[in-house]
Amino acid sequence: MSAGDAEPSAFSLAARVPNAKALSRLGILLSGRGSNFVAIAESIRAGRLKGVEIAVVVSNLAEAEGLKAARELGLPHQVLISKGRSRAEHDAGVIACLRAHGVDLVCLAGYMRLLSPEFVAAFPNRILNIHPSLLPAFPGLEAQQQAFEYGVKVTGCTVHFVDDDLDHGPIVVQRAIPVLESDDPHSLAARILAEEHIAYTEAIRRVASGEYEIRGRRFVKRNSE
After folding, report:
1. Longest C-alpha distance within the chain, in Å?
2. Residue 96's closest CA among 73, 109, 78?
3. Contacts of 168 (CB under 8 A, 6+ apart)
4. Domain-by-domain residue ranges, the chain?
5. Out of 77, 90, 131, 197, which one is annotated catalytic?
6. Residue 131 known to be catalytic
7. Is the dihedral of CA 196, 105, 173, 43 positive or negative?
8. How far apart are CA 143 and CA 155, in angstroms?
9. What is the reported pLDDT for 116?
10. Distance (Å, rounded) from C-alpha 63 to C-alpha 61?
11. At what angle do helices 185-209 and 143-150 cross, to 10 degrees?
12. Do 34 and 64 contact (CB within 8 A), yes or no?
């Protein structure tokens, strides 16, 4: 989701921020294994993603494997349990944690919760999500299975800004792969995941640069025609 009432004009204002350093501190939200988080961390370590750092990793589940990875990498991490709390209460806690760590770009990496409008408004046009399909095709859960069962010949992944609608905000990066005759839903999901690890790093690089504009729904490099 993205900022509730901010929408197009707010996206445009955010797009004019010229200083990449203003988008240098990442907050990672995850609920599971966090493979995209690990890929982002590796891209930073290897120098493929320059000028950014992971400020904190937050999970709503204490048993999330991604937290173990954060500990092993020596990264700040926090568990904020969502069970038994209202969405508003839980989101307020996550917002406070991200702000306390100076986060300016939030990256959802398998975070299995819908963000409230209040959360989106707290980080207007500064939340990215990755989805395992070529949006707008196959939004929602089990996108890889949806694509396989529909019989598409090409699928992939999408990194997009989060807005108030599910899997809907402006698209930053997409990567496509063919659906092979030998694929099953599991092999297809695994090949899409490999593309996700590349796409998320590229999307963060593009957004952190500040050199972009949103034209309608189009994410375009600044000064490009």
Report:
1. 50
2. 78
3. 135, 136, 139, 160
4. 7-216
5. 131
6. yes
7. negative
8. 10
9. 93
10. 5
11. 120
12. yes
> Is the predicted pLDDT of residue 8 greater than 60, yes or no?
no
Question: Strand, helix or coil at 18?
Answer: coil
Distance separating alpha carbons of residues 30 and 111, to the nearest angstrom: 4
Q: Does domain 7-216 have CATH number 3.90.550.10?
A: no
- Give the residue among 206, 107, 103, 101 at the shortest CA–CA distance from 162: 107
pLDDT tens digit string along 160-198? 999 988 888 999 999 999 999 999 999 999 999 999 999
Token couple for 181: 């005759």
The residue behind tokens 């800004």 is 161
The burial of 128, by beta-carbon neighbours within 10 Å (0-12 exposed, 13-18 middle, 19 or more buried), is given as buried
Instruction: Please determine, for residue 140, whether its predicted confidence score (pLDDT) is greater than 60.
Output: yes
Return the closest-CA partner of residue 18 out of 222, 210, 204, 207.
Answer: 210
- Reply yes or no on whether the pLDDT at 2 is more than 50: no
Classify each residue of 39-72 as buried b or exposed e, where b means 16 or more C-beta atoms within 10 Å of its C-beta.
bbbebbeeeebeebebbbbbbbbeebbbbebbee
> Which pairs from 87-92 meet CB under 8 Å and 24+ separation?
87/113, 87/114, 87/116, 88/116, 88/118, 90/60, 91/115, 91/116, 91/118, 91/119, 92/118
